[in-house]
């Protein structure tokens, strides 16, 4: 018996559903694709573009970590694909909850990404920082999400912008300075022509971020009490006291030194961009033993560079993640991949010391060799006589920040977010720099001792200099254009010592030396003719007549500085309390010390000390209040409480005298210094 049907309805089985309208499934797929494209576009703007932009302008980041082309390409793929894919999958996880929940989740994702983008844009175009910037960014994200939900135009714009990541990758690979590292062009460079005369060994050390004025004593000479090994080198070499670097940035300064040409284009410090340089000029005649740090100017055909800091894809990903955190933060930060440049020590990489531990009573814990930078240790090990003329080259990131060494060679920890500029902070930065410079002086002494022990010292052309300086002038700290204009004597003038083979007596030459003069001077000393045009002139030629200095904050943009040997800044006068002993004082107030527990178990034999004390104080302690920091009853530093910054109402005290510490438990005390000199102890937590 047939089932009844409605009038006019087709007679068909009830179990068969009506066919779906044409185009329903494709529409759903299209919506999903549109949503994915919008997410990809926003992630590209929030993550891919800013990160590749910073890394693309920082080829030295990849050179320092000795990244291969494959490493960089994998990193670019991860930066481009993984964040977008992760957010897309996060949105797709809501699919089982239904179309309405899915649409709502997508709107939330769009709003969050727009807020993250607003943080970056707001930091560039507004003075807002911190919580106010976050509030404004959230409001912008909400407004953008509402507009995206209500109107179709924002979604269309985002879908077109989904091509952005491909554009960003293309610019990075083919148009950025880092492209020379990823896709280097083969170029052997021109070899120098050997002339008549001897070809002595060359030992060249380039230090980093070392102003000449940091070495000077009150008489304008090298301060032999603080820097005995620099003074010893000056006493047996020619000291070009009026020497200047040509740029405050190593990727421009070092190529100028090794090519004899002023910076003209913002090129990567790579042999494919600077094919004609010191290494190629001497490479046909000399064996090259080069330890470069953030350059790769020596081509593989001339030398290999086996010693490197931590390298590989893992460190690139980790440091890129830290860089993205600074880019995305709602507060000002130094968005600089160079912050990851730190010389690893021999102990950190398990490298045997190049020489026996020196019998030096000033270094109390026999840890000097363990604490030597591994690049320096390898350099020392290679200082041996050879049958062929040899160029021993070392670019060492010392006394460059991060500052981590006491004069004795012991290391200390410090937070990454301490400012270097502003009230109190600039003085702290200079003190830490000078302490690390005194440790660098010890490394210079190790070099001189090794050269003499191997017989190379008398036979060799020895060159020691720095690529640029750095300013610690209040409000003008660093190496940027402001520092160049307001403190050129600290940024441009650098130490330069040239000891000719057989030279015994020291002399001072105040000619207008610029670091483009270095290559022609070396070439003349080793009797090799450089086959390309040079901007510099050899020290064997008459001195240049102009007194002004040429300096380049940016390649091709010359800054003219007045000439003349700078005078050192007025040294800070230690507070009368420093070095005194204190007894029990009344307690009045509190303070927080970040690493208070480090004083409970001090092991001097390990070569590490808690020599930087930092923390916060409550509002009851006014700005400008002096705090005396004592270890085991002896005052090691007196510092001011500085105005609050994003890190809070902070103080930081540097204790460079390692004799303050003893094995085991050490007592740390913090005292508030009254206007009349009375002390009130703060309870620490």
From TrEMBL:
Keyword Isomerase attached: no
InterPro entries registered for this protein in UniProt: Alkaline_phosphatase_core_sf (IPR017850), GAG_Ulvan_Degrading_Sulfatases (IPR052701), Sulfatase_N (IPR000917)
Pfam family, one: Sulfatase
Record's keyword annotation contains DNA damage: no
Domain Sulfatase N-terminal: 378-527
Name the record gives this protein: Sulfatase-like hydrolase/transferase
Matching Gene3D superfamilies: Alkaline Phosphatase, subunit A (3.40.720.10)
Ranges annotated as spanning the membrane: 72-91, 103-122, 128-148, 160-183
Keyword vocabulary terms for this entry: Membrane, Transmembrane, Transmembrane helix
Chain intervals for the UniProt region annotation (Disordered): 1-23
């Amino acid at each position: 018996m047939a089932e009844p049907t409605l009038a006019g309805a087709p007679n068909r089985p009830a179990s068969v559903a009506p066919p779906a309208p044409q185009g329903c499934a494709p529409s759903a797929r299209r919506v999903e694709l549109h949503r994915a494209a919008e997410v990809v576009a926003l992630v590209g703007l929030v993550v891919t573009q800013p990160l590749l932009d910073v890394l693309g302008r920082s080829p030295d980041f990849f050179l320092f970590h000795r990244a291969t082309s494959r490493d960089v390409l994998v990193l670019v793929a991860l930066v481009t694909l993984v964040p977008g894919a992760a957010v897309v999958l996060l949105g797709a996880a809501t699919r089982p909850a239904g179309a309405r929940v899915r649409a709502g989740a997508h709107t939330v994702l769009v709003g969050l990404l727009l807020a993250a983008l607003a943080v970056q844009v707001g930091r560039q175009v507004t003075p807002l920082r911190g919580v106010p910037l976050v509030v404004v960014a959230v409001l912008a994200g909400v407004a953008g999400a509402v507009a995206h939900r209500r109107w179709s135009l924002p979604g269309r714009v985002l879908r077109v912008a989904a091509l952005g990541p491909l554009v960003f990758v293309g610019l990075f690979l083919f148009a950025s300075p880092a492209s020379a590292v990823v896709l280097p062009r083969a170029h052997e460079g021109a070899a120098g022509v050997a002339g008549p005369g001897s070809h002595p060994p060359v030992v060249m050390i380039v230090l980093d971020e070392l102003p000449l004025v940091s070495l000077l004593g009150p008489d304008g000479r090298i301060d032999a009490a603080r820097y005995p090994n620099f003074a010893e080198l000056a006493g047996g070499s020619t000291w070009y006291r009026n020497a200047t670097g040509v740029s405050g940035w190593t990727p421009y300064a070092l190529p100028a030194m090794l090519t004899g040409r002023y910076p003209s284009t913002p090129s990567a410090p790579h042999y494919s961009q600077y094919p004609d340089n010191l290494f190629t000029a001497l490479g046909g005649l000399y064996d090259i033993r080069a330890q470069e740090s953030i350059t790769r100017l020596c081509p593989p055909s001339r030398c290999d560079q086996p010693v490197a800091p931590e390298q590989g894809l893992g460190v690139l990903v980790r440091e890129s993640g830290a860089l993205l955190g600074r880019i995305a933060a709602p507060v000002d930060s130094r968005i600089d991949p160079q912050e990851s440049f730190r010389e690893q020590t021999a102990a950190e990489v398990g490298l045997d010391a190049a020489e026996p531990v020196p019998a030096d009573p000033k270094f109390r814990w026999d840890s000097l060799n363990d604490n030597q930078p591994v690049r320096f240790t390898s350099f020392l090990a290679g200082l041996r006589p050879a049958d062929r003329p040899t160029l021993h080259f070392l670019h060492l990131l010392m006394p460059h920040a991060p500052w981590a060494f006491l004069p004795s060679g012991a290391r200390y920890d410090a937070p990454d977010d301490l400012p270097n500029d502003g009230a109190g902070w600039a003085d702290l930065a200079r003190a830490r720099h000078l302490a690390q410079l005194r440790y660098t002086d010890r490394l210079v002494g190790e070099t001189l001792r090794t050269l003499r022990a191997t017989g190379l010292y008398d036979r060799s052309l020895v060159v020691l200099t720095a690529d640029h300086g750095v300013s610690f002038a209040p409000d003008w700290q660093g190496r940027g254009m402001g520092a160049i204009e307001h403190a050129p004597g600290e940024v441009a003038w650098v130490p330069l010592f040239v000891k000719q083979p057989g030279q015994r007596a020291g002399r001072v030459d105040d000619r207008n030396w610029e670091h483009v003069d270095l290559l022609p001077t070396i070439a003349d000393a080793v009797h090799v003719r450089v086959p390309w045009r040079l901007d510099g002139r050899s020290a064997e030629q008459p001195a240049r007549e102009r007194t002004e200095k040429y300096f380049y904050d940016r390649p091709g943009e010359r800054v003219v500085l007045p000439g003349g040997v700078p005078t050192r800044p007025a040294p800070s006068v230690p507070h009368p309390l420093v070095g005194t002993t204190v007894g029990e004082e009344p307690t009045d107030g509190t303070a927080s010390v970040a690493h208070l527990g480090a004083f409970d178990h001090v092991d001097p034999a390990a070569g590490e000390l808690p020599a930087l004390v930092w923390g916060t104080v409550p509002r009851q302690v006014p700005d400008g209040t002096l705090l005396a920091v004592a270890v085991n009853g002896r005052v090691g530093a007196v510092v001011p409480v500085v105005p609050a910054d994003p890190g809070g109402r902070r103080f930081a005290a540097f204790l460079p005298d390692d004799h303050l510490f003893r094995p085991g438990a050490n007592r740390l005390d913090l005292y508030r210094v009254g206007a009349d000199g009375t002390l009130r102890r703060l309870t620490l937590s």
